[in-house]
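Please, does this match?
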Amino acid sequence: MTSTNRRVFLKNTLAGAGAIGLAGTGLFASAKELQKMAYGGSPWLSHYPTYLAIENGLLKKEGIDLRWESFVTGSARLSAMMAGDVDLAGFGSISTMALMARGVKQFYVVGVPENFGKVEGLFVKEGINSIADLKGKTIGTAFASSTHLLVLDLIASSGLTPDKDINVINISGPEIIAAMKSGQIDACAAWTPQFNILSSMPGVKLLADDTSFSLYKEFGTTPGPDLLVVKKSYAESNPEAVKSFIKAYFQSCEVLKNTPEKAVPILKKLTNLNDAEQLQTIKGAEWYTLDQQKDLMAKDGKFVTGLQKLAEMLVTYKQLDSAPKVSDWINPNFI
């Protein structure tokens, strides 16, 4: 979701390892010519293209010297961007909309990496076959995240009420596995990599993924679509660098879309998944290309309309006080 309160990893710095030994060959710009840029990431899907573009040298080829910074939560990543510590980052739309709703104008949404609808979902213990079967039971999920919104939407769509009919408690992604094993909860909503672990856990099954989300059926909108975001001041000062980053980013998306097996050895260093899990996770997402961005970023298009409906839903579920006009932050000029 969003990422949102997503995806844990130690703070790390990568300096284009894939380009080692090539700087003097003329294939890449010399170090003094490279545009310095900082990116805020994590092991979540939306950061795969950036990590891949660092490791395989695509960013160096485009003249970018990228510093990778990892953050425990999406909110920490957003705070770092607002403070000027990172220039670009991937974010879940829920945390991004929370800033929009507060009138924060210091960033642009400049791209959409993927649709992760089949690698996030609600898992239940055996014997539970519907949302109605969860009445009187407990669901664990990370609050203010895409999985939280999925749970609230699934409960409402079944005619039930959170906290009255079903107990929904706040558990972070990394703690969900232990909570399911211990019996603390009867169900949980999670994203990858916890999604992969739960998928193979004995006595646990997937009841619904993001394709069951009400807005997905009409707009193809998951509970917290991933967004590529750039700090406004950086973009306005370095527009060509942002365009170069986006070019390399979506070249990586094409690798993930067309030859995912080539990305597995690189990405598993980020995620700690095994080969099979990593390949399954990559294939579980629908990776968007640069050519698709113009339609996705159209302010009156289906995707942006879906984001607006999502913002309004967040108000309904008391996750936001008011719905921002999302299109005000959409900027397709760097594509």
Summary: Confidence is low (pLDDT under 50) at residues 1-31. The chain has two domains: 35-115+224-328, 120-219.
